[in-house]
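Researcher: Go.
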Amino acid sequence: MWRVEYDPDRRLLTLRLRDLVNPGDIRELASAQAEALSCTAGTPFRVLVDLRRLFPLEQEAVDLFAELKRVVHEQQGFRGLVVLTDSATVAMQQHHTRVRQGTDPERELITTQNREAEAFLERPME
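Model: Structure:
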């Protein structure tokens, strides 16, 4: 199960994935993400990827999800992405799909801590 939302007041794009997600789901998510990204219209925004209660992804889905993250990073207005998970395995998968290895934690944060994710999203945007 997945869901995409864009909140223009908070300038926050949220991707939520739960339970079992297969490669076909990720492809559908990519279409919804593209539509939501068009709503940002080049203005500054951040992304919350909420992966709590997600089972680890199979390799093809991991690869497709890595592409989703790359697309977000390339958008005009992109100011950071935080991945929130409650699974060490999912966190490890996300660390392996960083857009740039060793990414600055100001641009991409992977965490299991809700407060850390909230603090990342509440920082002022440039």
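Model: The first helix runs from residue 23 to 40.
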